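can u do me a favor
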């Protein structure tokens, strides 16, 4: 029996100051990925200067930027600054409101990575802002037969990732799987879970999967394997659905239209923080 609920092919969009990204899922797919709101995958060729993501606001969400190649510089309106490189991440809680910018730096290897948007429950949307910069040594590295695993958040194989999102039960794992090798994980039935394959080909159980595609998954044990001819690289993520109404416009996500209107009024008045 297939473990795949539905597949989502990434679409080419422009974000920030004109950065081409692969929009894996977003506004229209929220109920199927809740508590995740959006996932963008970006890949910039070597030594190409990216226009980046200049100053812009957020409220009511968390953003997670995870890099595989290159570097990205972060700066925000509450005084945080930092640069992340390969196998490093930034986890920013916008809460009641924040301005930030994320500017990629050109390198010989190019720039490759992800940005996730994670929703916040209504009771937490106006909480204090927070910024966490997790270096390479902070990620949990786990090795299995033919699998190289980076644990970003949650629990796996007795290890706990550097970001502990127990309230939403968020687990995020980056897996590099050698050709012909297998990886299995227990998908908790009360959560929404998916994988995003971005390099190589493989299988979820007996169903063939391809790059630049996300697959929402049924609960229970799920076996993922690389093809006999190619390695497979993917992100696995799951979390407890919040199940609340979503009012979303641009970089701000609230629960009601009235809250959204108030957020933009606060933004215009300059008292967003």
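np, heres the sequence
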């Amino acid at each position: 029996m297939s473990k795949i609920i539905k597949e989502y092919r990434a679409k080419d969009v422009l974000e920030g100051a004109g950065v081409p990204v692969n929009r894996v899922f977003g506004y229209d797919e929220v109920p199927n990925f809740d508590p995740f709101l959006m996932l963008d995958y970006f890949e910039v060729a070597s030594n190409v200067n990216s226009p980046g993501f200049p100053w812009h606001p957020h409220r009511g969400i968390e953003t997670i930027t995870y890099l595989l190649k290159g570097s990205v510089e972060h700066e925000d309106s509450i005084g945080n600054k930092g640069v992340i490189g390969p196998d490093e991440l930034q986890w920013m809680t916008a809460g009641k409101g924040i301005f930030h910018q994320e500017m990629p730096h050109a390198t010989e290897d190019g720039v490759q990575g992800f940005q996730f948007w994670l929703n916040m429950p209504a009771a937490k949307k106006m909480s204090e802002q927070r910024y966490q910069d997790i270096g390479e040594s902070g990620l949990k590295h786990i090795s299995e037969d033919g699998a190289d695993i980076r644990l970003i958040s949650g629990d796996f194989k007795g290890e706990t990732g550097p970001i502990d999102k127990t309230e939403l039960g968020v687990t995020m794992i980056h897996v590099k799987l050698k050709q012909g090798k297998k990886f299995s994980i227990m998908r908790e039935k009360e959560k929404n879970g998916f994988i995003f394959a971005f390099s190589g080909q493989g299988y979820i159980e007996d169903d063939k999967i391809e790059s630049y595609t996300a697959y929402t998954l049924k609960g229970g044990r799920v076996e993922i394997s690389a093809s006999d001819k190619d390695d497979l690289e993917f992100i696995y993520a799951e979390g407890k659905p919040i199940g609340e109404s979503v009012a979303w416009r641009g970089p701000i996500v609230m629960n009601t239209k009235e809250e959204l209107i108030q957020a933009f009024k606060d933004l215009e008045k300059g008292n967003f923080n």
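The domain at 4-269 is CATH 2.60.120.10 (Jelly Rolls). hope that helps!!
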